[in-house]
Design a protein that fits this description.
Blueprint (H helix, E strand, L loop, with lengths): L1 E6 L29 E6 L2 E5 L5 H7 L7 E3 L5 H4 L6 H7 L2 E5 L1 H10 L1 H4 L11 E5 L5 E3 L2 E10 L2 E8 L2 E3 L8 H4 L7 E5 L12 H11 L3 E5 L8 H6 L5 E3 L5 E3 L1
């Protein structure tokens, strides 16, 4: 299984438009972060978690010419705004599968009503195969995926476990029963927005405490804002086995 970090930034990305913050002015490519997303590939299958506003460029940058579907963590714009850019995949492949909580499907159907339209549909709009997921395991082709339920302040979000890899982003609280699903996993990806506390995201301290609970072999931090600091400086401060993810990073399990 190969994982490509398509984006590792928070909702505004880094650099933030118009910002003079030192991290936003950094020349280090690891400090330049698109909105958070990952591409997961195994056998001949390719799935993306979230399609934010940078989705088109992320697909071009990763030279991704086929996707078998998109899994959505939740409905916020930085995770869904690029849905229309599945059109090239749809034109080549046909209907595109999406997997999401029923609430997220309802939100997408309002925002992208022309995609979800069933009568008099605009001929250039893509068509979706909609799969509603709950907090129970489901299959993506030959792979069983285990949802991990969490809260993003007052918004429910899903993380996902794929065999020895777990991806959780935009979380603030997780029940103990959900943590048990990923205990001692090989690779964990978890969000850490900044140093200071935040109402709906882990800060760095909380993320490290969560990593200590889960005890993965290796952990990567994602959904990073400029307020976390420079990539190279922050990474030097992290415990053994914990790393900052960065755009275009690829790992193989």
């Amino acid at each position: 299984m190969k994982i490509t970090f398509l984006g590792t930034g928070t909702s505004q990305g880094i650099p933030v438009i118009g910002s003079k913050h030192p991290v936003c002015l950094s020349n280090d490519f690891k400090d330049k972060r698109l909105r958070v997303s990952v591409l997961i590939e195994w056998d001949d299958y390719a799935y993306v978690i979230d399609s934010g506003p940078d989705f088109r460029y992320q697909m071009l940058r990763a030279n991704c010419t086929k996707i078998d579907g998109i899994l959505f963590t939740h409905e916020h714009s930085d995770h869904t705004a690029g849905l229309d850019d599945i059109r090239p995949f749809y034109f080549r492949q046909g209907n595109i599968k999406i997997f999401a909580h029923e609430r997220v499907i309802k939100s997408l159907s309002k925002r992208f009503d022309y995609i979800f339209e069933t009568e008099n549909k605009y001929p250039g709009a893509p068509t979706l195969d909609i799969n509603i997921i709950e907090n129970t395991p489901f299959f993506l082709n030959n792979l069983c995926v285990i949802p991990v339920n969490a809260m993003h302040h007052q918004v429910q979000v899903f993380g996902f476990r794929f065999n020895d890899f777990a991806y959780l982003t935009d979380i603030k609280t997780v029940e103990k029963t959900e943590i048990e699903k990923i205990k001692n996993i090989k690779i964990l990806v978890i969000n850490a927005l900044r140093i200071e506390p935040h109402i709906s995201h882990f800060n760095l301290k909380e993320a490290l405490q969560f990593i200590e609970q889960v005890k993965p072999k290796i952990a990567y931090i994602t959904h990073i804002s400029h307020l976390l600091g420079f990539h190279e400086e922050v990474e030097k401060s992290l415990p053994k086995g914990v790393f900052l993810a960065y755009d275009n990073l690829q790992i193989t399990i």
